[in-house]
Design a protein that fits this description.
Elements (H helix, E strand, L loop, with lengths): L14 H8 L45 E3 L6 E3 H4 L4 E6 L15 E6 L5 E7 L8 E2 L6 H8 L4 E4 L7 H4 L6 E3 H9 L1 E2 L9 E3 L1 H11 L28 E2 L2 E3 L8 E5 L4 E6 L2 E2 L1 E2 L4 E2 L1 E2 L1 E7 L1 E3 L6 E3 L3 E9 L2 E9 L7 E3 L13 E7 L7 E2 L1
Parallel strand pairs: 3-7, 4-25, 7-8, 19-25
Antiparallel strand pairs: 1-2, 3-5, 4-5, 6-10, 9-10, 11-23, 12-13, 12-26, 13-14, 14-15, 14-18, 16-17, 19-22, 20-21, 22-23, 23-24
Length: 372
């Protein structure tokens, strides 16, 4: 698996240089906390001393609406049968020929990452997929897509894979529903009028049937505690050293996507291919509450165009929400671990409740990320 002839690009770029490229994010501040001393007054008490009891303030317990739990994907209240059910992760194509896409407006978390040549693909995580009639178009997976889906304990729907991803997808770490290994007739369908290979789609009913037929447990493991941390109701995340972020341009080669902030609803609206990115299933423009830009090194597998993006280890990035951006660092222990993001003070960031869009950016293209 590791017998690769590495051709890392820009691997020598230091953490400091990348941070400087990323941060139009404001100057660093170091605050020194001042310790306050409390003076003790000595009092002489005749014979009997009065004992003063200090009332201990117990932490407030969050009021839980009946039958509801916090979503691991959005931090919002959802019905318990939804919030404790493992999400479906769906591999979706995003080349021009695959447009328009269906179902993405219902996704709670979307990972966007480059594939070979100039292609870009999504791993879209769906918590409430039951009523979706069309999701797609669905394409094949790469190695790093397997790692993304594992971070959320999802069930992974994809239509094939590159050869280098096969050992990861079939090695026991992934619960997969693969369209090229027998699931095509009962987990997927062809959309009429779509040319190959952009004609593979699934639906909420097919997802539920496939999970049952494959014998996968559709409930989160009892040990699962979630991926992200979220701000509490009525609160917003701490954003030390924040800079304005009304427009975010990621500049992938093929689709050239960007996001525009709407202060009225505090959402980022998604654009690509020179216009609004719209879900053809309901004609809604895609939006999100949080954007994470994660900068990663990479290599090619041998002399192929297939990418091996290093989403494990550590690196830098940016966290964007509420019209503001801060620089972050990210860390992930091992290929199957969970990625954590930290602000300039070393604290793990909290996201706003709502949908999150993660853009994976290769090191060599970090200078093309534009935020203003």
């Amino acid at each position: 698996m590791k017998k690769l002839r590495k051709r890392k690009l820009q691997m020598g770029v230091s953490l400091f240089v990348i941070l400087m490229l990323l941060a139009g994010c404001g100057k660093k501040q170091e605050e020194t906390a001042k310790a306050t001393e409390t003076e003790k007054a000595a009092a002489t008490v005749p014979e009997t001393s009065a004992v003063t009891e200090t009332a201990e303030t117990e932490p407030e317990t969050e009021a839980v609406p009946e039958g509801m739990v916090r979503s691991y994907l959005t931090g919002q209240w959802v019905p318990e049968q939804i919030g404790r059910r493992r999400p479906a992760a769906v591999m979706i194509s995003n080349v021009k020929a695959a447009q328009p896409s269906y179902g993405l407006s219902a996704a709670d978390v979307i990972y966007e990452a480059p594939a070979e040549a100039s292609a870009v693909r999504f791993v879209a995580f769906f918590e409430q997929y039951d009523d979706l009639k069309e999701i797609g178009s669905i394409r094949s997976a790469r190695t790093y897509h397997a790692f993304f889906q594992k971070e959320f304990e999802s069930i992974f729907f994809h239509y094939g894979q590159c050869e280098y991803a096969r050992p990861y997808l079939e090695g026991g770490q992934c619960d997969c529903v693969n369209g090229v290994t027998g699931a095509s007739e009962w987990a997927y369908h062809s959309m009429e009028g779509r040319e190959k290979p952009h004609h593979h789609f699934t639906s909420g009913e097919e997802i539920k049937y496939a999970i049952e037929r494959m014998g996968y447990d559709n409930q989160y493991p009892e040990s699962y505690t979630g991926h992200y941390q979220f701000a509490a109701d009525g609160e917003t995340p701490s954003m030390p050293d924040a800079s304005p972020a009304s427009r975010v341009s990621v500049e992938y080669i093929s689709n050239k996507p960007w996001f525009e902030y709407n202060a009225e609803d505090s959402l980022y609206y998604r654009y690509q291919f020179e216009g609004p990115h719209v879900d053809a299933g309901n004609d809604e423009q895609l939006t999100c509450k949080n954007i994470i830009i994660q900068v990663c090194d990479y290599e090619h597998y041998f002399d192929t165009d297939y990418l091996n993006i290093f989403v494990q280890g550590e690196g830098v990035g940016q966290f964007i929400t509420d019209g503001k951006v801060i620089p972050v660092t990210w860390k992930k222990d091992g290929e199957w671990g969970v990625t954590h993001y930290y602000d300039s003070q070393g604290n793990e960031i909290k996201l706003n409740q709502g949908k999150t869009w993660v853009c994976i950016v290769r090191t060599e293209r970090v200078g093309r990320v534009q935020i203003s």
